[in-house]
Amino acid sequence: MASTLITNIGELVTNDPDAARDGRGLLGAIEDAALVVEGAHVAWTGRAADAPPADERVDAGGRAVLPGFVDSHSHLVFAGDRAQEFAARMAGTPYAAGGIRTTVAATRAATDEQLTSHVAHLVEEMRRQGTTTVEIKSGYGLTVRDEARSLAIARQFTEETTFLGAHVVPDGDPAAYVDLVTGPMLEAARPHARWIDVFCERGAFDGDQARAILRAGADAGLRGRLHANQLTYGPGVRLAAELGLAAVDHCTFLSDDDVAALRDSGTIATLLPGVEFSTRQPYPDARRLIDAGVRVALASDCNPGSCFTSSVPLCIALAVREMGMTPAEAVHAATYRGAEALDRDDVGALVPGRRADFMVLDAPSHVHLAYRPGVPLVAQTWIGGRPA
Ligand code: NIG
Ligand code: FE
């Protein structure tokens, strides 16, 4: 198998959990480092001076190398935009879940080709900003046919596909819609989806509905994740903890009981600060969660309504500036924790055996991602051991 030595790395972020346990820091960073890639995987990491020989050699020029971002929350299958809704928000209109229906109408009217090329464009935009794994949800179809086709399209770009038929009730009777989601829609979605998600929120689905939908998903073999506590306090976070879900996302409005439930269950709290930026809501309190012993991930939530950014570097900068995270915690949350939020142990760290998914930064260290906000610092993204 062909091997490549990437050497002269100013700072190599490994996220090696053993390094963290040995007191070598959360990021397991190595200075003056090198990395050997064999095929699609990492074969060796360490000091450049100790590097083994390889077939090819790449000079990183003293720049930083980090694991690729694992963006565990996005809604990329949609048509149209809601720029006017954003402008109205910035003039004082509050965000409401009902705006989702505008995108549903545009998505239903789009062809498969239009939707596919739009997802391709957004995935490429993400890749240029260092994202190497992305989760993609359905949720703007909301008919049996449109949810199945949204997932079939998403599946062309990622293994991490999530059925979100329970995004909002499109029209009619909510109870009848829940029956549709847990019946024929789930049946049609199942072959294309790994996960099932519910928007458990005022104006969307309540705790009992979310529980019924997640249970039906589990019976069909889909693992659960949840949108919860974005707009107000509610039952979603505690439900996610009770069910032992991999992750619960948003977590903006949390009671002490919610925080304790997250800590005790080990369910990851995925924070999505692009949403608070784009809705002018208060940011979630990452410091409170981390200090309580909760595992925190960061993701983009790229979607046309509450947050139309594909940029994890922006989310890192916001998390550091507005949510009390250190640069190291934010980078770890967007890589290692993102992988954990998707139950993946093959990505999110640069240790032997994991996938060689990484980025080269046009900067000497990870700190620059927050220190130089808004600057496109990702010089190169490698996926599966090759430049993407
Ligand atoms: O994660 N919360 C539900 N879904 C998106 C918003 C969708 C929309 O407004 O179109 C979110 O914020
Ligand atoms: Fe979302």
UniProtKB/TrEMBL annotation:
<keyword id="KW-0408">Iron</keyword>
<feature type="binding site">
    <location>
        <position position="82"/>
    </location>
    <ligand>
        <name>4-imidazolone-5-propanoate</name>
    </ligand>
</feature>
<comment type="function">
    <text>Catalyzes the hydrolytic cleavage of the carbon-nitrogen bond in imidazolone-5-propanoate to yield N-formimidoyl-L-glutamate. It is the third step in the universal histidine degradation pathway.</text>
</comment>
<feature type="binding site">
    <location>
        <position position="301"/>
    </location>
    <ligand>
        <name>Zn(2+)</name>
    </ligand>
</feature>
<feature type="binding site">
    <location>
        <position position="306"/>
    </location>
    <ligand>
        <name>4-imidazolone-5-propanoate</name>
    </ligand>
</feature>
<dbReference type="InterPro" id="IPR005920">
    <property type="entry name" value="HutI"/>
</dbReference>
<protein>
    <recommendedName>
        <fullName>Imidazolonepropionase</fullName>
        <ecNumber>3.5.2.7</ecNumber>
    </recommendedName>
</protein>
<comment type="pathway">
    <text>Amino-acid degradation; L-histidine degradation into L-glutamate; N-formimidoyl-L-glutamate from L-histidine: step 3/3.</text>
</comment>
<keyword id="KW-0378">Hydrolase</keyword>
<feature type="binding site">
    <location>
        <position position="230"/>
    </location>
    <ligand>
        <name>4-imidazolone-5-propanoate</name>
    </ligand>
</feature>
<keyword id="KW-0862">Zinc</keyword>
<keyword id="KW-0963">Cytoplasm</keyword>
<feature type="binding site">
    <location>
        <position position="75"/>
    </location>
    <ligand>
        <name>Fe(3+)</name>
    </ligand>
</feature>
<comment type="similarity">
    <text>Belongs to the metallo-dependent hydrolases superfamily. HutI family.</text>
</comment>
<feature type="domain" description="Amidohydrolase-related">
    <location>
        <begin position="65"/>
        <end position="382"/>
    </location>
</feature>
<dbReference type="InterPro" id="IPR032466">
    <property type="entry name" value="Metal_Hydrolase"/>
</dbReference>
<feature type="binding site">
    <location>
        <position position="301"/>
    </location>
    <ligand>
        <name>Fe(3+)</name>
    </ligand>
</feature>
<feature type="binding site">
    <location>
        <position position="73"/>
    </location>
    <ligand>
        <name>Fe(3+)</name>
    </ligand>
</feature>
<dbReference type="InterPro" id="IPR011059">
    <property type="entry name" value="Metal-dep_hydrolase_composite"/>
</dbReference>
<feature type="binding site">
    <location>
        <position position="167"/>
    </location>
    <ligand>
        <name>4-imidazolone-5-propanoate</name>
    </ligand>
</feature>
<feature type="binding site">
    <location>
        <position position="227"/>
    </location>
    <ligand>
        <name>Zn(2+)</name>
    </ligand>
</feature>
<feature type="binding site">
    <location>
        <position position="75"/>
    </location>
    <ligand>
        <name>Zn(2+)</name>
    </ligand>
</feature>
<dbReference type="InterPro" id="IPR006680">
    <property type="entry name" value="Amidohydro-rel"/>
</dbReference>
<keyword id="KW-0479">Metal-binding</keyword>
<feature type="binding site">
    <location>
        <position position="140"/>
    </location>
    <ligand>
        <name>4-imidazolone-5-propanoate</name>
    </ligand>
</feature>
<keyword id="KW-0369">Histidine metabolism</keyword>
<feature type="binding site">
    <location>
        <position position="303"/>
    </location>
    <ligand>
        <name>N-formimidoyl-L-glutamate</name>
    </ligand>
</feature>
<feature type="binding site">
    <location>
        <position position="73"/>
    </location>
    <ligand>
        <name>Zn(2+)</name>
    </ligand>
</feature>
<feature type="binding site">
    <location>
        <position position="140"/>
    </location>
    <ligand>
        <name>N-formimidoyl-L-glutamate</name>
    </ligand>
</feature>
<feature type="binding site">
    <location>
        <position position="305"/>
    </location>
    <ligand>
        <name>N-formimidoyl-L-glutamate</name>
    </ligand>
</feature>
<dbReference type="Pfam" id="PF01979">
    <property type="entry name" value="Amidohydro_1"/>
</dbReference>
<feature type="binding site">
    <location>
        <position position="227"/>
    </location>
    <ligand>
        <name>Fe(3+)</name>
    </ligand>
</feature>
